[in-house]
Amino acid sequence: DPDSGDNGLLQYSLVDNQADEFDINENTGQIFTVSVAGKTGTFYLEVQAADQGTRSLTARMTVNVTVDSSSSNNIVVVVLNQKIGAVEKNILQVKRVLEDKLTWNVYIIDVYLNEQQQQARSSTDVTYTKITAFDDANQEVPAEDVKRKLKEQKSNIETELAKIFATSVTAAVEETPADSTGPDQTAAIVLGVLLACTLVAFLAYVLITIRKKRYRHSNHQPERTEGIDNPCAAGKDGSVRSLETLEHMHN
């Protein structure tokens, strides 16, 4: 709009955006996704621009938005030594630098702090940026290729970002911790657990056996029977009598 003053100020809006899948910045016209999870294909958005004149004039145009499927496996995290507020403020310039140096279409998915840093948002100089990249054929670039190129262009990226933030910048790729338990270590751990279980079971068996023997010993009352192997027998009054005496009395 060539008008000056209030007549030249434009406000942008989406026409008939019933699904609330997109939003638009009314001052800049920049379009954002709100919720397109699980959806792919081309969306046709009708955008209206209106000036602020006494008799407001409007113009409309259809914008085609293509949503491609993306895999979480191809998301790469770039760590910047800058406060999150500064990164959020300059996010479009950061995106431009990454696209220029990687020569791919770069999409910034999220800018965030880790859990330990969230309590000290204003004083933390480490910001995490999730990105994914698509080539000219609209095919998602594998994460390993993105990481490799980020490392190759690390110096150039940091030089350009330093111009944006007006200070030295380091841009590092966050690596997923390697799995420290390989097959051999896993087998050793399993064997150790089995041996430990066997030892515990054996000790429990020994302990139970000892207790049973002690219980039997403490409750064992020897029985006396009359016969050749037992020269003594109990009388009616409970006294012990010799078999010889008993035999004599019998005779």
Automatic annotation (TrEMBL):
<dbReference type="GO" id="GO:0008013">
    <property type="term" value="F:beta-catenin binding"/>
</dbReference>
<feature type="domain" description="Cadherin">
    <location>
        <begin position="1"/>
        <end position="77"/>
    </location>
</feature>
<dbReference type="GO" id="GO:0007156">
    <property type="term" value="P:homophilic cell adhesion via plasma membrane adhesion molecules"/>
</dbReference>
<feature type="region of interest" description="Disordered">
    <location>
        <begin position="218"/>
        <end position="251"/>
    </location>
</feature>
<keyword id="KW-0106">Calcium</keyword>
<keyword id="KW-0677">Repeat</keyword>
<dbReference type="Pfam" id="PF00028">
    <property type="entry name" value="Cadherin"/>
</dbReference>
<dbReference type="GO" id="GO:0016477">
    <property type="term" value="P:cell migration"/>
</dbReference>
<dbReference type="InterPro" id="IPR015919">
    <property type="entry name" value="Cadherin-like_sf"/>
</dbReference>
<dbReference type="GO" id="GO:0045296">
    <property type="term" value="F:cadherin binding"/>
</dbReference>
<dbReference type="GO" id="GO:0005509">
    <property type="term" value="F:calcium ion binding"/>
</dbReference>
<feature type="transmembrane region" description="Helical">
    <location>
        <begin position="187"/>
        <end position="208"/>
    </location>
</feature>
<protein>
    <submittedName>
        <fullName>CAD87 protein</fullName>
    </submittedName>
</protein>
<keyword id="KW-0812">Transmembrane</keyword>
<dbReference type="GO" id="GO:0016342">
    <property type="term" value="C:catenin complex"/>
</dbReference>
<dbReference type="InterPro" id="IPR002126">
    <property type="entry name" value="Cadherin-like_dom"/>
</dbReference>
<dbReference type="InterPro" id="IPR039808">
    <property type="entry name" value="Cadherin"/>
</dbReference>
<keyword id="KW-1133">Transmembrane helix</keyword>
<keyword id="KW-0472">Membrane</keyword>
